[in-house]
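Supplementary Note 3. Input sequence used for the single-chain structure prediction.
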Amino acid sequence: MVREGVKRKNPYEDVSVRAMTKLPFRDARFSRFSAVIQLRKAAVTFMSSIAGNSGAPKANGPHDIELELRDMRQLFNSMDPSPFKDKDLDGDAEEFIVGSAQEFPPDMLLRLRIHLETWPGEDPTELIRAAVHNYFADRAKHNYREFRLLMKRGRTSLLIGSLFLVACLLISKVAIGDTASTWAGIARESLTIAGWVAMWRPMEIYLYDWWPLRRRGRIYTKLGAIPVEVIQKAKSNMERPPTR
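The predicted structure, written as discrete structure tokens, is reproduced below.
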């Protein structure tokens, strides 16, 4: 017979008692919480070691923009007679480099790696690096001039639109007034709509047009100082591990 007042035995009581006797903490809940923290730290250390051993890029390391070319002349505009350091880049090459840079966040470190199939007599790394930096630095200056002209055009458009809107509202109020005829209502609404339509261009500039231009200018500035590596394509293929 079971005596009254005796509590039913907890099936986890022995486990908790054994855990409390082995661990240096009195509180079992605190000890379990500490054990969970230790397991999480061990998991993070294990995953970090795997990422480091697998050759994955570091979170704060540069991300590569890979460009494969037959020879060095393919990088530049063939119609530009300037020396190599002052030559314009080829349109397709520029579009590829800028488009690849736009895929990364603005604060992400980038690196341009150019693989050449035909290696010239001298190492072209310094020449290509100077040409890329000069070209994108010039593009950044040109973009800044375009941005300033856009802001000036926006201020002029805003002034003209505001004056035209005020004139339309004054004409609607003074000339037409509160006339209740149908034609007077049409004229009043037409003047109001025309005044606000005149504000469309400055609103478009200050809401939508400026920030894509500014973002592209930041990309040009970043590419104007991007690290550039030129690699012989045959040599880079030899360095790669064989695929199975």
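The CA atoms of residues 147 and 210 lie 7 Å apart. The radius of gyration is 35 Å.
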